[in-house]
UniProtKB/TrEMBL annotation:
Gene name linked to the record: Mettl25
Transmembrane segments: none
InterPro entries: Methyltranfer_dom, METTL25, SAM-dependent_MTases_sf
Superkingdom per UniProt: Eukaryota
Start and end residues of each Methyltransferase domain: 66-343
Protein name: MET25 protein
Organism whose genome encodes this protein: Loxia leucoptera
């Protein structure tokens, strides 16, 4: 009840008088409590068609834990949407160093164009592609050598009468080897030793493995080590040949020749796949008026994705999606709300500009404005604070006292320059102030050390107040984020060409605080 929550503030002074009620109100109006999100599991279930998914590359080999978590979850969803829409082309907006793009390409065989405004990011993505190719070849080579060694050991340990002759290979099962998950037997590149052995190495389904563990009938199967399984899983999906589509008449060939021909085909396809499936990094600044055809010459039916698109880029991604008929779906996770441009923040600015907030007509009609302080607060991470990852109180205190110094000593109330991450490089408060003044191009010679420390001592006793104030901002953060996200969702609901749109919580908010995706399908 709004009336109840309003009691958290004094009616006359409008000051906060009931912190507990304030916290309850903030929780009540958070996205997790409003019931407007669609569970990720429901979305994946609805999108599930004939897609069997992919097994394979572990993203934590190429990126940190946070990025690995984000890429793994989002790429599975993107692949499901792409399969549902019957598309193979993906445009990654604000692709950065290409973590998501390269994973989508290598793991799911999607044709990905990664667009970033920073040439250094694009160049870094090119270099990363080069390293991935090198790693990919080494990965396959290591698997080949490991498997040969294991096959030799297995052959020496196993009685001759139990060896499997290639004539016993079930041709019918081979003809159905269309995926890495649903087959009873698959032939994987380099799994047949080339040193005269006729034994076939097979992978079993989880059902077979469970049955064998109960009956103890595993003596005829090769037990692959975890390392070899990782290597097998790392192969692209199309490294497994679809034998049923072959028009070659192999009726007169002996079984061994059939296997050799198929293995040659597998090696060729896997090599081409591993070298060609990396994505295409492009440098371009994306705005709401960007013509994708000018950047991507072979634009076809595709979907647009963005993993932590900064400021206005998240809003512009949705605008491009609604305007371009070729883009059939969008999955966008925004961030950096403090960098959003606001239509009603500075009324004197031009009104024909395309703004980041608000997007929907509902809030435009109300002339809604958040303001920079509110948008800055929306970037705070309540879930991280809740598990003990506290706010950087000391650095915030340093910055607050610095603000007082530059206003009182230098008379500066506004500057286009930024202090940046000076705190982490400073050995003391005095060092912090002097470094900051240099960045702001202010003369620090007129400010003795004693004066700097006087300011520090004057406000030191208020550090607890500052921490309490920032904790209140943390409580309020989800409510402000709700406003921004619902504005984007409402914008999509106002469009006539959208079949479905929703908000989906993709990530663990402790690992990745900006965890909500805006998803829509034409």
């Amino acid at each position: 009840d709004d009336d109840i929550f309003s009691r958290a503030f004094c009616e006359n002074t409008e000051k906060l008088v009931d912190v507990h009620l304030f916290a309850l109100a903030a929780k009540y109006y958070s996205l997790s409590n409003l019931g407007v999100c669609t569970p990720l599991e429901d979305v994946l279930e609805a999108l599930k068609g004939d897609s069997e998914g992919a097994m394979g590359i572990k993203p934590d080999e190429f990126m940190n834990d946070k990025k690995s978590h984000e890429v793994q979850v989002m790429s599975e969803l993107v692949d499901s949407i792409a399969n549902y829409c019957g598309i193979k082309q993906v445009i990654d907006i604000g692709s950065g160093k290409g973590y998501l793009s390269s994973f989508l390409s290598m793991q799911y065989n999607l044709k990905v164009y990664g667009i970033d405004s920073s040439s250094s990011n694009t160049n870094g993505a090119h270099e990363r592609n080069r390293k991935l190719k090198k790693h990919w070849r080494a990965y396959q080579s290591r698997g080949k050598e490991t498997l040969k060694r294991q096959s030799l050991e297995m052959a020496n340990d196993r009685p001759v009468e139990n060896e499997i002759n290639c004539k016993t290979i079930n041709e019918e099962l081979l003809n159905n080897a269309n995926s890495l998950q649903n087959q009873d037997q698959v032939i994987i590149q380099d799994l047949v030793p080339s040193c005269g052995f006729t034994e076939m190495t097979t992978l079993k389904t989880s059902t077979e493995m469970e049955a064998d563990s109960v009956t103890g009938a595993q003596s005829h199967e090769t037990k692959l080590s975890e390392e070899v399984l990782d290597i097998i899983n790392a192969l692209p999906v199309d490294a497994v040949e679809d034998f049923s589509s072959s028009h070659c008449n192999c009726g007169e060939l002996c079984e061994e020749e059939k296997v050799q021909r198929k293995m040659t085909s597998l090696k060729t396809r896997a090599r081409k796949s591993s070298e060609s499936n990396l994505y295409f990094p492009l440098t371009s600044c994306i705005t709401a008026k960007t013509e994708l055809n000018d950047i991507i010459t072979d634009l076809e039916d595709c979907m647009m994705v963005g993993l932590h698109t900064c400021g206005d880029l998240a809003a512009n991604t949705l605008r491009i999606f609604t305007a371009k008929p070729e883009i059939k779906a969008v999955c966008s996770v925004g961030c950096c709300y403090h960098l959003l441009s606001e239509q009603f923040e500075n009324p004197e600015e031009c009104h024909d500009q395309v703004w980041g907030f608000p997007m929907c007509q509902y809030l435009k009609d109300k002339g809604w404005c958040c303001g920079r302080n509110a948008r800055m607060s929306a970037c705070l991470a309540l879930e991280r604070v809740a598990v003990g990852q506290m706010l950087p109180t000391e650095s915030l205190f340093y910055r607050a006292v610095l603000q007082v110094i530059i206003e009182e000593i230098y008379g500066v109330t506004k500057s286009d320059r930024h202090v940046g991450k000076t705190f982490s490089k400073s050995s003391s408060f005095i060092d912090y102030v002097r470094r900051s003044l240099k960045k702001l191009e202010l003369d620090d010679s007129k400010l003795p050390d004693s004066c700097i420390m006087d300011y520090y001592e004057k406000y030191k006793h208020r550090m607890n107040e500052l921490e309490a104030f920032n904790m209140l901002k943390v409580f309020l953060a989800p409510c402000i984020e709700v406003l921004i996200l619902l504005d984007r969702l409402c914008y999509l609901k106002e469009q006539e060409n959208i079949a479905w749109s929703g908000l989906v919580k993709l990530f663990d908010p402790v690992k990745s605080p900006r965890c909500y995706a805006v998803i829509a399908l034409k």
